[in-house]
Every structure is written in C-alpha cells, then in structure tokens.
Amino acid sequence: MTTTASTASAAYWEPLWADGRQYRQLDEAEHRLMDEHLGPGRARPALDIGSGAGALARHLHHELGYRTTGVDCSPSAIALAATHDTGPSPAWRCLDITTADLTALPDPAYAVITCRLVYRWMDDKAAFVDCVRQLLAPGGAFWVVTEITGRRTTTDPDLQGLGITPADAELLTTGWSVVRTADLDVLRCYALRP
Ligand SMILES: C[S@@+](CC[C@H](N)C(=O)[O-])C[C@H]1O[C@@H](n2cnc3c(N)ncnc32)[C@H](O)[C@@H]1O
C-alpha cells in the first residue's frame, strides 16, 4: 500500500528543496506592501512560518528591524537560508509547525507572524490558524501571502491547484477584528489582527 505524504510535512518538501526547487521570489511591490502593513519592527519578535530560502524573514529582520525567527520543516531549506547569513541574521529553526512543541520557539509570543505560499499546503487549516492565534502577541499582525484560485489563465490543473478556495479564504479571515487585503496579480496578501 502506498501512502501520500502530507503537504504540510518534511516528507513532502524536503525532496523538493534538496532537488533545488525554487519558488516565486519576493519583489519590490511585495516588499512595499509588507512595509506598509507591518510597519517598523523596533526589535520586536517576528516569526516566519515555512521560511524556505529565507527571503521574507531577512526582509523582516534587516529592512523592517524585527528580531526574526524563520522556521521550516525542511532541513535543506533551513540550510539554504543560513547560507545567506553574514553578520546578525534571523534565527533559523528546523521544525514542523503542525507537530512541534511550540514552547521550544525562541519567544513565547510574536508581534508579527508571517507565512508566504504556505497556508495553501496546510492539511488542517483551522488548526494552523489556531496555532498562529496562540503565538500572536496582543495587537500583533498575521501576514499571509497566498495564491487565489481562479486567477491564472492556464487550464493546467496543477497550476490551478496552487490557489486557495473561497472556503479556505473564509476560514483564514474569520474571527479577526481587522482584515486588510492587497492583491499582487495571482497572489493576495492578508494583514489580520486579533
Ligand atoms: C511553497 S514553499 C514557500 C517558501 C517561502 N515561504 C517562500 O515564499 O519562498 C512552502 C514552504 O513551507 C514549508 N512548510 C510546509 N509545511 C510546513 C510545516 N508543517 N512546518 C514548517 N514548514 C512547513 C515547506 O518546507 C516550504 O519551505
């Protein structure tokens, strides 16, 4: 019997990173949106979940001034992120956010939590959002960047499947006191505040 790896696990992501797979790069427009919605870090703690090669975590840390931790379940992604480090850099941790003991994270609560191109892959999205709520400091912000289903012109089902459904979007945005969104072609950015 063959079992399919969860798309929220190292079993799924590690072979892709080890094989040199790359994902959409952040550009100036995306940086600007982060800066506008998240504001200056002033050394407050930030957590980037599914940090991959680490570009978003580095922007939070170096440009916005958050004291940032990037976590990813893939050892190869964490190793790649760490190769960019010169001088003071984000802290990198290899862990699976769906199974880890969250008390092992460097901080008990975060002023900003981010996840870019990650929410789509969580099997249990409600549990994932609950986990973020537990880790978010009062007045903090949850920044999510995700593709939205139906925005691509292609009919390729694999590419169409990269987006989240309206039901996933509703689950993500329910129960926050502030929900702001901004669009970047096929992507939507969400700034969610408790
Ligand atoms: C599509 S990649 C995006 C990487 C990066 N955020 C970016 O924007 O380039 C999704 C990332 O989420 C990570 N990931 C998936 N499930 C995870 C989990 N349960 N815990 C931690 N990281 C996870 C994967 O290893 C992968 O690096």
Descriptive notes:
InterPro entries: Methyltransf_12 (IPR013217), SAM-dependent_MTases_sf (IPR029063). Keywords: Methyltransferase, Transferase. With 194 residues, this protein is an alpha/beta fold. The protein has one domain: Vaccinia Virus protein VP39 (Rossmann fold, 3-Layer(aba) Sandwich), CATH 3.40.50. The chain contains 7 helices and 7 strands. A 7-stranded mixed sheet has the order 3-2-1-4-5-7-6. Strand 1, helix 3 (55-63) and strand 2 (67-72) form a beta-alpha-beta unit. The mean pLDDT is 95. The structure holds S-adenosylmethionine. Residues 8, 13, 23, 50-52, 56, 71-74, 77, 96-98, 116-118, 121 line the site of S-adenosylmethionine. S-adenosylmethionine binds at residues 8, 13, 23, 50-52, 56, 71-74, 77, 96-98, 116-118, 121.
Low-confidence residue ranges: none
What is the CATH topology classification name? Rossmann fold
CATH homology group: Vaccinia Virus protein VP39
Provide the domain count.
1
Quaternary form: single chain
Number of helices: 7
Percent helix among the residues?
25-40%
